[in-house]
Write a structure and sequence with these properties.
The complex is a heterotrimer of chains A (about 775), B (about 150) and C (about 270). Chain B is an alpha+beta fold. Chain B has two domains: about 80 residues, Beta-grasp domain (Ubiquitin-like (UB roll)); about 70 residues, [2Fe-2S]-binding domain (DNA polymerase, domain 1, Orthogonal Bundle), CATH 1.10.150. Helices cover about 30% and strands about 15% of the residues of chain B. The mean pLDDT of chain B is about 95. In chain C, helix 5 packs antiparallel against helix 8. The chains are: A alpha+beta (about 775), B alpha+beta (about 150), C alpha+beta (about 270).
Chain lengths: ~775, ~150, ~270
């Protein structure tokens, strides 16, 4: 489209604020009249992983300076609530009866000043009767100690219970020449948005609850908060200030957030709450946390014919969304980019005495990709062939019509081999292999590892669509209302580009509104890489409809036939053909319609189905074979997200995704001791990756538009993470392949790598 | 106790508890909320400000220790509505996404260039080791600092 | 997170600080740059009732060429040590090791004296000054005394400083010949899983280990072996002879021992080049 702004590297409209005064995050709300005199909530959290609560003594805390109140579940009259994904499991939002993980909220302290809360919370004395602690998934599966007694088992969700077929075992591989088995740990990681959780709640004079919340999905949070407060939807307004990152962990509303209004009502005052990072590391949901039992089989020539996996998903101490990602995200994507005739996947989600597992960037798909990519590497190693070539032999050939895999998932479009070709060329794969061979031959201490991954993922899966509204103000500005919700993605810029492209209104005259449920009552939020392909498309459709609506009004005002009215996009005005001097601008039309509700267009865009971004990554690492230290040297990524709206933002998403994926492969892991005590409960102990551990990234573009929406766009928010994790992990293993190393679990810490080297050589055993 | 701290060129004077951290003084007493708190172990650098012209983590300094000193926060970086070259470079190179680490990152980067006007990419990566970002993968932050060094 | 309540007094001289410690006893802690103490106080692992702010004692911030050694005031900041031309010229190992302490922000505030007095075996500078054969000058109510680095570290976060003493000066002998600082960690900003500070000049050498026990460890067996003609490979096999490495979430004791041998060998190779 000539002259279109779409596809250009447009700088972000939102940046000047962030760069000069900083964003206004929930903890920065100093100018809200409703929050004047707010009390500060500090939650008292369980310090033990599994115990019956014998007593809670708040008397000493009540004497602590500044304390206004201390509430337990009993004080707030909390009733047990059922887990969405297993209604048999019930808990109260402040623990009653028992605690199930370290960090679970048990009571709340209200103080006049924020800094008084910690002093007071320390003085709430909880007497516990300790129970057996279950940290290990496989132990929890068979233990007679039950985390939710009412469930009768710690298995809280199983794919077979949904009618999905069980695995048939080794019989499936009877006709395979080569069969390889693996047990892969896709470890628990912490999402770590740089802004921790926070919220503020106030009841206004009309008895409405106004709640500010750091969330990815205000409308979803509103529905949860409505229930916990026992009010009608119209009695609640959720407002999203700037959000300092989410990565999936801020999709759902948490107990603290669902309770803040209840607490404010009880106290008769507005209440503010911001957790500390140490709290966040145990109370914000974690991600991944799967053990995967994988079997892959095929021919000696390299054709994979059968693939089977049993996923054990750690659900943590609640049945949150993490429990269902395995059956609904990992399982459907299990075949990856490969044409595998027989696939069986079973998933079993298990409760443990750990922080509940939620969605984290990729949410179920990185786990699927990691499993099949590791399996493909091990299969290639078993038959002694190059892993890139074995992948190529098994790729689903290019398809522009929907393609279904043996597990039953239908993909939109794909050209996996092309992405592999591009990334191999860009990385100079052949030369890398030659350098690797040279280092091996010379016996160098620093060995080179090359990891290849090819992936496909699902974005905007299960998402029904999105709404958008565009309103033209009397000064000719456009206000775009969107049900999606930025926390770094750049929606303000993207939606302004899309609206400008159709309406001709310059980007600096377009404002974007989101995350306020009074202004945007409907919306699916930002998650699952859905924003552009649904929210952006909704804006695109609304803008087109707005132009058509405006043409009608212009015709009336110009006393012309509608078909004679021309929309001059460059001038952002309507005129009768041949007489451009007599034109109606957007402002003219808005003013003319002022008495008739203004110039507004609202659209409900209905999804035409999920889209399936794909790509290939090559990662190059250097492994110090004496120490086990891994250094990432290069990372080349070719991610195809369909038609690109703004390459600058696309690359930013890919970069961030690669870093988070590399972090999981190399460094990050949430760990507990056997008593369920977290040992990675701050950013000194949790190995959050920094600039110093990463190289710059090489991003290769490829665009295969999806037919499933008018922008041709697929999601890009999670692809980088999905492609990078297995590539980096594979690179580490590959560096040691000549020693016979076939697999190292993530994170590939120096000690793990060293132990693997030592196992395979005498030399490492000094 | 009373402290006098010049913040962004303006003298300030307030009574504070001895335990008041400089970041609390900046955010809560002065209501300058550009400076953020991202952790409690001096790990993330979101709270980075300049103390007498050098980058420090304001979560690890008592307001009392800054008494008599000069502090610059992100709010003090642009002059007469014109962004500091580092702020411009972050904008032009998409060096920020959610913006939470950004003020601290910019302050650390400005301090870095003061001490090393022509850093290599590695110098920048090591120099920013104490500033964590979850969004950008650091790629465009490094590009931003390289670009600012050339300005 | 915020520290528990405390009172704060400012000392304008070492003598005043020592008088204040005498007055407040166990309740009091000295606050220099605060980059060891304040993090502990925020996590409430330390809750002193009184902080004595010695950060303003400007006459304890200096780097002097004192002939056979370099004298560094205890309140000299890491960044000043790291960039000091005197230190770079005469004790390059110390300048280099200091550049590995924390991150730039930490080094703008943290002081050499604060780091040494905190006596954390996982810190870079206790082992480095130990390898260099430094002497610490401490001042108490009855004047000053010298403590050799080899006599200073008594246990986990425990030093030979009496409760009413403070560190005022660090004297580091000038070195000639080769040196090396090896810091092994997972992330740049982390403490060392194992670190090695080493210098070598012919048969003479100093090798000390970071995070290989409850105190920084002087690897005397390595130096003795080198002095008696052992090869670097042979000597580095003795790297952990004096160490008592712990196991933690980053590394097992066995892995630490292995790393110490590899890193000592590399440090000596670099020092001998």
């Amino acid at each position: 489209m000539a002259g279109s702004i779409l596809g250009n590297r447009v700088l972000r409209k939102e940046d000047p604020k962030f760069l000069t005064t900083g964003g206004v995050y929930v903890d920065d709300l100093n100018n809200e009249p409703l929050l004047v005199g707010a009390l500060h909530a500090t939650f008292v959290r369980s310090t033990v992983a599994h115990a019956n609560i014998l007593s809670i003594d708040i008397s000493e805390a009540l004497e602590s300076p500044g304390v206004v109140a201390v509430y337990t579940a009993e004080d707030l009259g909390l009733e047990p609530v059922a887990a969405t994904f297993n209604p048999t499991a019930k808990r109260t939002l402040l623990a009653t009866g028992k605690v199930r993980y370290v960090g679970e909220p048990v009571a709340v302290v209200l103080t006049q000043l924020a800094n008084q809360g910690e002093d007071a919370a320390e003085k709430v004395i909880i007497d516990y009767d300790m129970l057996d602690v279950l940290v290990d998934i496989e132990q929890a599966m068979t233990s007679t100690t039950l985390i939710y007694e009412e469930c009768g088992s710690n298995v809280v969700f199983d794919s077979t219970a949904l009618g999905m077929p069980d695995n048939t075992g080794d019989a499936m591989f009877a006709d395979c020449e080569v069969v390889v088995k693996g047990r892969f740990v896709n470890q628990r990681v912490a999402p770590c948005p740089l802004e921790v959780r926070g919220s503020a709640a106030a009841w206004d004079k009309d008895g409405r609850l106004i709640q500010w919340l750091s969330t990815q999905h205000a409308q979803g949070a509103r529905d949860a908060i409505q229930k916990s407060n026992g009010i009608e939807l119209d009695q609640l307004r959720v407002i999203t200030p700037d959000v300092g990152g989410g990565f999936g962990a801020k999709i759902g509303a948490y107990p603290e957030e669902m309770l803040l209004g209840v607490i404010a009502k009880k106290a008769g005052k507005p209440v503010r709450w911001t957790e500390t990072r140490s709290e966040s590391m145990t109370a914000l949901g974690h991600g991944r946390a799967q053990i995967q039992y994988v079997t892959i089989g095929g021919t000696k020539a390299g054709k994979v014919t059968a693939y089977q996996m049993h996923v054990l998903q750690d659900s943590g101490a609640w049945v949150d969304i993490g429990a269902i990602l395995a059956p609904f995200m990992t399982r459907p994507m299990a075949s990856g980019v490969y044409d595998i005739p027989k696939i069986e996947i079973r998933t079993t989600s298990v409760a443990t005495n750990t922080t509940p597992v939620v969605a984290y960037r990729g949410a179920g798909r990185p786990e699927a990709t990691a499993a099949v990519e590791r399996a493909m590497d091990m299969f290639a190693a078993e038959i002694g062939k190059d892993p890139a070539e074995v992948r190529r032999m098994n790729l689903i050939p290019k398809f522009l019509e929907p393609h279904s895999t043996a597990i039953g998932q239908t993909y939109d479009v794909g050209d996996y081999e092309e992405s592999l070709n591009r990334v191999l060329a860009a990385s100079d794969y052949t030369k890398l292999r030659a350098e690797q061979a040279a280092r091996r031959a010379s016996g160098s201490v620093k060995q080179l590892g090359i990891g290849v991954s090819v992936y496909v993922e699902i974005t905007a899966g299960n998402s029904p669509g999105e709404s958008a509204k565009i309103e033209i103000t009397q000064d000719g500005r456009a206000v775009v209302y969107t049900g999606t919700s930025p926390h770094g993605q750049g929606h303000v810029t993207s939606w302004a580009m899309i609206a400008s492209d159709t309406t001709g209104i310059p980007m600096d005259k377009i404002d974007v509104v989101w995350g306020d449920t009074d202004l945007v009552p409907k919306g699916g939020g930002t998650m699952g890489s859905r924003s552009l392909q649904q929210g952006g498309v909704a804006v695109h459709v609304a803008a087109g409809e707005l132009v058509e609506q405006a043409r009608k009004h212009a015709a009336r005002l110009l006393e012309a036939n509608e078909e004679d009215v021309i929309f001059d996009k460059a001038a952002a005005a309507f005129h009768v053909a041949g007489t451009p001097a007599v034109a109606k601008s957007w402002a003219d039309l808005s003013i003319a319609l002022a008495q008739d509700g203004g110039l507004v267009q609202e659209t409900d865009y209905v999804s035409q189905g999920a889209t399936f971004p794909f790509g290939a990554h090559v990662s190059v690492v250097e492994v110090d074979t004496e120490t086990g230290q891994v250094k990432m040297l290069r990372h080349v990524a070719c991610d195809d997200a369909g038609k690109v709206l703004n390459p600058l933002l696309l690359e930013g998403q890919i970069h961030g995704g690669i870093a988070q994926g590399a972090a999981q492969a190399l460094l990050e892991e949430v760990r507990y001791d056997t008593d369920g005590n977290p040992i990675t409960s701050n950013l000194a102990d949790y190995a959050f990756i920094s600039a110093a551990e990463l190289p710059s990234f090489e991003v290769i573009h490829m665009e295969t538009p999806t037919p499933r929406n008018p922008l041709g766009a697929k999601g890009i928010g999670e692809s980088g993470t999905i492609g990078s994790t297995p590539a980096v992990q594979s690179a580490v293993v590959d560096a040691l392949a000549h020693l016979g190393v076939r697999h190292i679990d993530m994170p590939t810490t120096p000690q793990r790598v060293w132990e693997e080297i030592r196992k395979h050589t005498a030399k490492g055993n000094s | 106790m009373k402290v006098n701290i010049t913040v962004n060129g303006q003298p300030t004077e307030h009574d504070v508890e001895p335990r008041t951290l400089l970041v609390h003084y900046i955010r809560e007493t002065l209501k300058l909320t550009g400076t953020n708190v991202g952790c409690d172990t001096s790990s993330c650098g979101a709270c980075t400000v300049h103390l007498n012209g050098e980058a420090v983590k304001s979560c690890t300094i008592l307001a009392a220790q800054a008494d008599g000193c000069s502090v610059t926060t992100i709010e003090g970086m642009s002059k007469d509505g014109v962004m500091h070259p580092m702020q411009q470079a972050f904008m032009e190179n998409h060096g920020l996404q959610c913006g939470f680490c950004t003020p601290g990152m910019v302050m650390a980067a400005v301090s870095l260039l003061k001490e090393n006007a022509n850093p290599t990419e590695d110098d920048i990566r090591i120099g920013l080791e104490g500033n964590l970002c979850r969004c950008t993968g650091y790629h465009n932050i490094v590009q931003s600092v390289l670009a600012a060094a050339k300005k | 997170m915020i520290p528990a309540q405390f009172d704060l007094k400012r000392a304008s001289s070492a003598a005043e600080a020592i008088a204040l410690i005498g007055e407040y006893g166990d309740e009091a802690k000295l606050l220099a740059g605060g980059h060891s103490l304040i993090p502990l106080m925020k996590l409430r692992l330390a809750q002193p009732a009184m902080l004595i702010d010695i950060g303003r004692i400007s006459d304890l911030s200096y780097i002097k060429d004192a002939g056979d050694h370099i004298a560094i005031g205890a309140l000299t900041r890491h960044m000043d040590v790291e960039k000091s031309s005197i230190v770079l010229q005469h004790v390059p190992l110390l300048a280099h090791a200091t550049s590995h302490v924390g991150d730039a922000q930490v080094r703008h505030r943290g002081t050499i004296g604060g780091s040494l007095a905190h006596a954390d075996s996982a810190s870079d500078l206790p082992a480095t000054t130990l390898a260099l054969g430094a002497t610490y000058v401490v001042q108490g109510p009855h004047g000053q005394r010298e403590i050799a680095a080899t006599d200073f570290y008594k246990g986990f976060l425990e030093s030979a400083l009496a409760p009413d003493e403070m560190l005022v000066e660090i004297r580091v002998p000038k070195t000639t010949g080769g040196w090396s600082f090896q810091k092994f960690n997972r992330r740049a900003q982390d403490w060392a899983i194992v670190g090695v500070a080493a210098w070598r000049n012919g048969n003479a050498s100093g090798v000390a280990l970071v995070n290989m026990g409850s105190t920084p460890i002087l690897a005397t067996s390595v130096s003795a072996a080198l002095a008696s003609g052992a090869s670097i490979a042979e000597a580095s096999e003795l790297a952990a002879a004096e160490a008592e490495p712990q196991s933690d979430s980053n590394a097992s004791s066995e892995y630490r021992t292995h790393l110490a041998k590899v890193l000592v060998r590399r440090a000596l190779e670099e020092s001998t080049r």
